[in-house]
Structure formats: C-alpha cells, structure tokens
Design brief:
By secondary structure, the chain is of the alpha/beta class. The chain has helices at 57-64, 87-92, 110-117, 129-138, 140-144, 155-166, 185-200, 212-218, 236-241, 243-250; strands spanning 17-28, 31-42, 46-51, 70-77, 80-81, 95-98, 173-177, 204-208, 221-226, 229-235. The protein starts with 16 loop residues before the first strand and ends with a helix. It folds into two domains: 17-94 and 173-254, Rossmann fold; 101-170, no CATH class. The longest helix is centred in the last third of the chain and has 16 residues, at 185-200. Strands 6-7-8-3-9-10 form a six-stranded mixed beta sheet, sandwiched between helices. Mean pLDDT is 90; it is low at 1-9. The protein is built from ten helices and ten strands. Helix 3 packs parallel to helix 6 (155-166).
Length: 254
C-alpha cells in the first residue's frame, strides 16, 4: 500500500510527538517559574531535560502532571489537551511520575508498595504475573527484598523500587526526576540498562538529570533549560560532541 493510500487507522508512529508543551507558564504563589516552555517528547524515545539548578526542570515535570497548574500555554499528550486536567486523570492516560524524593512508603514492604501502585488490584495475586517477572528481570533487588520494609533499602534499591512502582501497570510515558542522584556507579549502570530495556519495550521516557555521563549514554534527544525556558533542543549526540555548545548552555563539558 502506498503512503498516499495508507490506512487512516494506522497506529502511532515512533518519533512523532507524544507529549508537547507550547508556551507554558507556571506561577507558584508570587513566583513566576516557567516563562513560556516549548518542549516536544517523541514517542518511543528517551528525552533528557538538562539545565543548571533552578532552571525550571522539576517545575516543568510537575506542571505536566498537573501537580502545579500552568497559568498560560498548552500541554498535549497523544493529541489530547491535558493542560487543565487534574493529576489522577493525567495519570490515568498512561503517564507515570517518579519524583526526586522517589515517593515510596518507608514503613511498607516492597510488595505492599508495588500493590499500592497497581490500581486495578486489591491483592498481589491480582497483579499481572508476567509483568512482575519482567520487572524483576529489570530490577532484581525488587524481587530479592520483596518482603522487606522499603525504608531499609539502599538509595539505589529505593530508586529501583520507585521506577518499578511506576511501571507495575503499562504506561506510555515515564517521567523521572534525577534517577541517578546519589547512586553509586554500579547502580547507575544498572539503571541505564533498565531504562534502555524500557525504551525497547515501547515506553517513552522524559528524564531530568544532572549526571551528564548518564545523559550522554542514554538520551536520544535533549532539551536544555535556563531561567524557565528551553534554550536548546536537539539530538543528544550533537550536544555531546559539541564542547562549545556544552559550555555555553551548561557551563561544562560532557
């Protein structure tokens, strides 16, 4: 079938925008944090959101999820305007968020944390067994410490649990704030491998990251923020190979 006669019911195409922000402003109290953010996250790819501390990266993620409300502009997911949707409805569309503090329940076991994240299950037996085994393959520590209190896990193990909770049900978009923060190099390598596998499975990822080597190894695309706006967007490879651009945007070299 030629392109001209292709079926109009064909499925979504890898690389087309899954999430877009157009001219998004966000105020938090008296503070004007985002000043017109334009961002495109292609389907099936991993997009890195970089920038100096205070550039507006976390505010951008929280605005996407509806945790903070955009005061101006438009946010669209899979062609649907989600700008004014409350957070539970945004999550219900297939977007999962892992905040910087990971948001796990320290007094509950790993299993109980996972069950809470599986909205369609009241007992762990109701969670998709094949999906759990897939998650255990990505993060073996989740299986190893299944019945342990989550608060007793190491920092890297808590991060793995946080991501596992986010994907215990199928998601189209995974939004993660600084997944490598405070992790040992071996844990960072494990996280990179897991994210690469998630991308191969068809999940789209948007990551805020300060670890530049992490970003360089994993990112397909990159957007750099400064003072509440995106000042650069393009291929991660191009930024990684251009030391002059790195210094001008980030004040450092990859």
């Amino acid at each position: 079938m030629s392109a001209a006669t292709a079926s109009p019911t064909a499925g979504p195409v890898r690389g087309e925008p899954l999430l877009t922000l157009e001219g998004v402003h966000t105020h938090i109290g008296a503070y004007h944090i985002l000043h017109g953010v334009d961002l495109s996250v292609p389907r099936g790819e991993l997009t890195m959101l970089l920038g100096r501390n205070g550039a507006g990266k976390t505010t951008t993620l929280r605005t996407i999820l509806g945790l903070w409300r955009a005061s101006q502009g438009r946010i669209a997911f899979a062609g649907r305007d989600i700008t004014a949707l409350p957070t539970p409805q945004v999550a219900g569309l297939g977007i999962a968020y892992v905040p910087e503090n990971m948001g796990i329940f320290a007094d509950l076991t790993v299993k109980e944390n996972m069950l809470l994240a599986a909205r369609g299950a009241r007992r762990i037996e109701q969670v998709d067994t094949q999906r759990l085994e897939w998650i255990f393959g990505l993060f073996p520590a989740v299986k190893k410490f299944w019945n342990h209190p989550a608060g007793k896990l190491s920092g890297g193990q808590k991060q793995m649990l946080a991501v596992s909770r986010a994907i215990v049900e199928p998601r189209e978009l995974l939004v993660i704030d600084e997944p490598s923060k405070g992790l040992a190099p071996v844990m960072i390598n494990n996280m990179i491998e897991a994210f690469a596998e998630l991308k191969r499975s068809g999940v789209t990822l948007l990551l805020v990251e300060q670890n530049i080597n992490f970003a360089k190894r994993l990112g397909d695309g990159v957007a750099v923020m400064d003072n509440g706006v995106v000042v650069h967007a393009g291929a991660m490879r191009e930024l990684a190979e251009d030391t002059g651009l790195q210094r001008s945007l980030l004040g450092l070299s990859l």
